[in-house]
Design a protein that fits this description.
Structural class: alpha+beta
Distance between the termini: 51 Å
Radius of gyration: 20 Å
CATH superfamily of the largest domain: Recombination protein O, C-terminal domain
Low-confidence stretches: none
Strand order of the largest sheet: 1-2-3-5-4
Helix content: 25-40%
Order of helices and strands: EEEEEHHHEEEHH
Number of strands: 8
CATH topology of the largest domain: de novo design (two linked rop proteins)
Shape: elongated
Mean pLDDT: 93
Strand content: 15-25%
């Protein structure tokens, strides 16, 4: 028989369906990616009370049907992140974060590290206006790569293991490379390399600063890693 289950989730995307329903793309704590339908949610009077908008963190009760979509039967707000919608830069960064999760993590297996990272990112952007920077957005993507199992090698040459003179990046090799293995790579300045290392190892609240040139190279390294290993292409992070 169809089962009912409860899970906490973030609404990544919401799409109008029919006259009053919405299709929801959710990333959940217990079940990873979930597709769901919220029936009647677009009516003026609805039991969901506007709690199923993108960027909301919610506690859901869902009815598990035979198809790919579950049916939302109850929704309670955990965190609405209200300040995000008051600042354009924060809203753009939060939307980018949700889109990255939507496209990178399509498994129905739980990934607590990725879920906690997304929740932390949304909360940080909600309460800290200064957090909506290019550097912080790149740090989030880099940590998301780690949570998804695609983090680039930064400690040694990804091809031969050499630990010195790591001045280039090769997505096909899997990370930074030395001069002897740099075919097909692009130059990576010391500042860009330092940013990648520090951003991966520091909390989101302590994202290191870097020059526009360094951030541009870091953005390229992250984007090419996503394209080569995860086979997805995300929009570059604008300044």
């Amino acid at each position: 028989m169809p089962a009912t289950f409860r899970t906490e989730a973030v609404v990544l995307r919401s799409i109008r369906y029919g006259e009053a329903d919405r299709i929801l793309h959710l990333y959940s704590r217990e079940r990873g990616r979930i597709g769901a339908i919220a029936k009647g949610v677009r009516r003026v009077k609805t039991r969901f009370g506007g709690r199923l908008e993108p960027l909301f963190r919610v506690d859901l009760l869902l009815h598990e049907g035979r198809g790919e979509l579950h049916t939302v039967t109850s929704a309670d707000t955990v965190d609405a992140h209200p300040s995000l919608r008051e600042r354009r830069d924060a809203l753009e960064r939060a939307t980018q974060a949700c889109d990255a999760v939507l496209r990178l993590l399509d498994s129905q297996e739980p990934n607590r590290a990725a879920y906690n990272l997304l929740c932390h990112e949304l909360r940080l952007l909600d309460v800290e206006p200064a957090a909506a920077t290019r550097a912080q957005a790149l740090a989030f993507r880099l940590k998301l790569l780690l949570a998804a199992g695609f983090a680039p090698e930064l400690a040694a040459c990804a091809s031969c293991g050499e630990r010195e003179h790591l001045g280039a990046f090769s997505a096909s090799a899997g990370g930074v490379v030395c001069p002897g293995c740099e075919a097909g790579s692009f130059a990576l300045d010391r500042d860009a390399y330092s940013f990648l290392v520090m951003a991966l190892g520091s909390p989101l609240t302590e994202t290191p600063a870097a020059s526009d040139r360094a951030l541009g190279q870091a953005d390229r390294a992250i984007a090419e890693t996503l394209e080569h290993h995860a086979h997805i292409r995300l929009r570059r992070v604008a300044a």
